[in-house]
Write a structure and sequence with these properties.
The protein has about 725 residues and is an alpha/beta fold. It is built from 29 helices and 15 strands. The strands form 6 sheets. It has a 4-stranded mixed β-sheet with strand order 11-13-14-12. β9 and β10 form a beta hairpin. The radius of gyration is 30 Å and the shape is globular.
């Protein structure tokens, strides 16, 4: 209970407030008087052009600097530049707001950051090499790693540059045209009209439905635009190469279809027929097997009338999941209903897709509540997505530097509009944020173009050239490491070792967005869609979605190398992975990795090889991922300090370290220091430093690496 205020208490508060105001006014007056005096004397300069501000900074003469003994001290410069920031950080000014911020300090030619170290610590390697930074901050839960804490800030900086270039009056690319159309739509509040244009485009491709094959081809048309339907088309691979995966899609009930059809102006009869078909799908049996013939009709529809149609009809490699309950229900409902109802249902899917496309930009479905609920359900059922064909890392530790397989590629290429509808701008697009909302939507629609832009923003020509030389040397060293007894004894037989070495020899390294036809780039050019100035932003979005789909399917038709696969994550993620199968593997670096503290064109060889080189070596050594080829007794010996759940990551780490040591560019103590700084972090008071996936915990990973280096490379 709060006690009632007394007259004396109220009077005391008033007096205190008046004294505070008087003191503040007096202080302001004194500062202004001092500023006026020093400006006249020429010993300071003002920090603001405003007549309301009296801030000033001293102007020190050369003689003064000499007296302060700072003119020749590197340490004094670093301390002054660091100011209020933590060790390893420097004061800077935000480019847009002008506010003071602390950013990661650059360290080159050596990447080792001396000021975050605690040289007197003997407790552990991570304390020795990161102790000052760890102690300078607190963490309630989870962990914050030195190498990753500014990942989002770097991504935001790239977007800030793109925002500055985003005038509707300049730029001739499809990306620029989409951004211009998108901003016009948002500031003019014309999303409803744009959504109707998008629906008309899809509706025109749903022809007369008389047979089940007609209906399946119509599903293929919608699926190829990343629409939500009972069937889903993705890209996957096996030991032979790429194939089209026709699998279970999603279910849309009567209410969201009614509302979406009403929103695009369809009549009462169409809404009723669509709802009747959807209701029938709810009650019919779903155990019927979906055949490859059904799947082929879906794929035929997906390329009908496109540049790929002539090549694709006889060249598909298809995997059709026979257990496809949503498509099975669609087929059973089709056999028990009229073709009028079936077509109305397909038109309803097109209407829902047009609102999903709108939501990619605006982050909302307007007032269509049932449609919103359907979208939220679909998102909850599917892997988190960041763009057409791209996943979002939902578990940062588990998703970094791992080996991936065909299921990850399948999940990435099978995202839909609904799974992306909250990705770009969940808060909704308004006039005030039109530029940023439309940039976010563009990242969803143009992932390949943004790969190129992000690469050009972050990777210099000199760094790219150095990476080529380094990658070749590391791959050769990795092969020698697998042949050597220290790591090669991991395998249970000579044949298993030879099989793994053969896999390594076939492994290629790619960098997302690297120039096409260069050493780390893809060879195939993207086939652009046909756009018109009258399309509107949402129709452009649908056309770009279709072009992305055809680009992926082209890899199946031509049986391109699996190393031509599109990256599975946003290019600005600080990540790398190995896509692995029994007959081949492909290493992928994302441009977000090629920044400090992992890479810089001015790093010396010891730093570059110990940081991004170590990551590349780690990915190459993920060819050891097939544990059925291992001698588990020896695995337990060489990784005696590791938890068994981390063995696959552990051997990639240790084999990668051994490969870097083999090159002779760095000694074991320095390599320990570099790797320790990459993996050191602050662990929360309430826990969170443990591994949610297959990696050793924060700080422990670097400590284990250092123990290995001391033991075997003294």
């Amino acid at each position: 209970m709060v006690a009632p205020a007394t007259e004396e208490g109220v009077f005391a508060v008033i007096v205190t407030g008046l004294l505070g105001l008087f003191g503040g006014a007096l202080s302001y007056s004194l500062v202004c008087a001092e500023q006026s005096a020093c400006l006249k004397a020429g010993t300071c300069y003002s920090l603001s052009n405003s007549s309301w501000s009296c801030g000033f900074k001293n102007s020190i003469t050369p003689a003064g600097w000499r007296m302060l003994n700072t003119s020749a001290q590197v340490e004094a410069l670093q301390v002054a530049n660091r100011g209020i920031c933590q060790p390893g950080m420097r004061q800077n000014v935000d480019a847009l707001s002008g506010a003071l911020e602390c950013v990661r300090a650059r360290s080159y030619p050596s990447a080792l950051m001396a000021e975050i170290e605690d040289p007197d610590s003997t407790n552990s390697d991570h304390r020795r090499w990161c102790g000052n930074w760890i102690d300078a901050g607190t963490q309630l839960t989870g962990s914050k790693k030195w190498a990753f804490f500014d990942e989002q800030a770097v991504a935001d900086d790239v977007d800030d540059v793109l925002l500055a270039r985003g005038s509707a009056r300049i730029g001739g690319s499809d990306l620029s045209k989409f951004r211009a159309a998108c901003k016009s739509m948002v500031v003019s509040n014309s999303a409803a009209a744009a959504s109707r244009l998008a629906f008309d485009h899809l509706h025109a491709q749903i022809h007369t439905i008389t047979t089940v094959d007609d209906a399946l081809r119509a599903l293929g048309v919608l699926s190829s635009h990343f629409c939500d339907t009972p069937v889903n088309i993705g890209l996957s691979y096996d030991a032979v190469g790429f194939y089209s995966s026709v699998d279970s899609g999603t279910r849309l009930g009567a209410d969201p279809l009614r509302e979406a059809l009403y929103g695009v102006g369809q009549d009462h009869s169409t809404r009723d027929h669509a709802a009747e078909f959807a209701d029938l799908m709810e009650v019919v049996a779903s155990f019927d097997a979906v055949t490859e013939a059904h799947a082929k009709q879906v794929l035929v529809g997906s390329v009908e009338g496109t540049w790929l149609e002539g090549q694709a009809t006889s060249a598909f490699r298809i995997y059709s999941n026979p257990y496809n309950p949503h498509l099975a229900r669609f087929l059973r409902a089709f056999s028990q209903s009229s073709t009028l109802q079936a077509r109305a249902y397909l038109v309803g899917l097109a209407a829902y897709c047009s609102f999903s496309a709108r939501s990619v930009v605006t982050g909302e479905f307007g007032s269509i509540s049932a449609t919103t609920l359907a979208s939220e359900r679909i998102r909850s059922e599917r892997p988190a997505a960041s763009a057409f064909g791209r996943l979002r890392s939902t578990s940062i530790e588990a998703d970094r530097f791992v080996e991936l397989d065909h299921t990850h590629l399948r999940n990435a290429t099978a995202v839909t509009m609904s799974s992306l509808s909250a990705t770009s701008n969940a808060a909704g697009a308004t006039r005030g944020n039109a530029r940023s909302a439309c940039l976010a939507a563009a990242r969803v629609a143009f992932p390949d173009e943004f790969d190129r832009i992000d690469f050009e923003s972050l990777v210099s020509d000199r760094l790219y050239d150095r990476l080529e030389t380094m990658t070749s040397a590391i791959k050769t060293a990795a092969e020698a490491t697998l042949n050597d007894d220290l790591v090669g004894s991991l395998f249970s037989s000579t044949a298993n070792k030879a099989l793994t070495i053969s896999l390594l020899q076939q492994t290629q390294l790619r960098i997302a967005g690297a120039p096409r036809a260069t050493w780390a780039g893809v060879s195939h050019s993207f086939e652009r869609p046909t756009l018109s100035s009258n399309d509107g932003a949402l129709l452009m979005l649908l056309k770009q979605a279709k072009a992305t789909f055809l680009d992926r399917l082209y890899k199946v038709v031509t049986q391109a190398s699996v190393c031509q696969h599109p990256p599975l994550f946003n290019a600005l993620e600080r990540n790398a992975y190995l896509l692995v199968a029994s007959g081949f593997s492909c290493a992928m670096l994302l441009p977000g990795m090629l920044v400090p503290p992992f890479a810089d064109e001015r790093y010396d060889d010891a730093s570059l090889y110990s940081r991004i080189g170590y990551v590349i070596a780690h990915e190459f050594l993920h060819v050891t991922a097939f544990t059925d080829l291992w001698d588990m007794s020896y695995a337990g010996t060489i990784m005696s300090d590791y938890e068994s759940s981390t063995y696959r990551e552990g051997i990639a780490d240790l084999g990668g370290l051994a490969s870097i040591m083999r090159l002779g560019v760095v000694d074991n103590a320095s390599l320990c220091a570099h790797v320790s700084q990459l993996w050191c972090g602050r662990v929360g008071w309430l826990g969170g430093g443990g591994s949610p996936g297959s990696h050793p915990a924060t700080n422990e990973r670097g400590d284990l690496a250092c123990n290995f280096l001391r033991t075997h490379f003294s």
